[in-house]
Design goal:
By secondary structure, the chain is an alpha+beta fold. About 50% of the residues lie in helices and about 20% in strands. The longest helix is centred in the last third of the chain and has 19 residues. It starts with a helix and ends with a helix. The structure holds zinc ion. The site of zinc ion has 8 residues, from loops. Zinc ion (ZN) binds next to loops.
Length: about 90
Amino acid sequence: MAGADAYGGAYDSAFEQGPEHMRDYGAELACPKCGQLHYISPRRLQADLRIIFNCSSCATEVVHENAVAQAIAARMATIRRELGKIKV
Ligand SMILES: [Zn+2]
């Protein structure tokens, strides 16, 4: 389906520009135990449904349910479903 490919391609190129254009969309997650901040890259925020890391200060394993990536995934599923309805 050519229409879907063109749409998907636009999304892909937007994500490939990520390092240049999404740089400021990273976030700092605080360790729940000691409060140490850990920088999470925009790419991880967009892609990892659950962000898991070991605190660099107290070595606690931090598991963060990533609402950002979960929202993006839900939106992508919606877009894909809507594209499926389009007859080209
Ligand atoms: Zn910690």
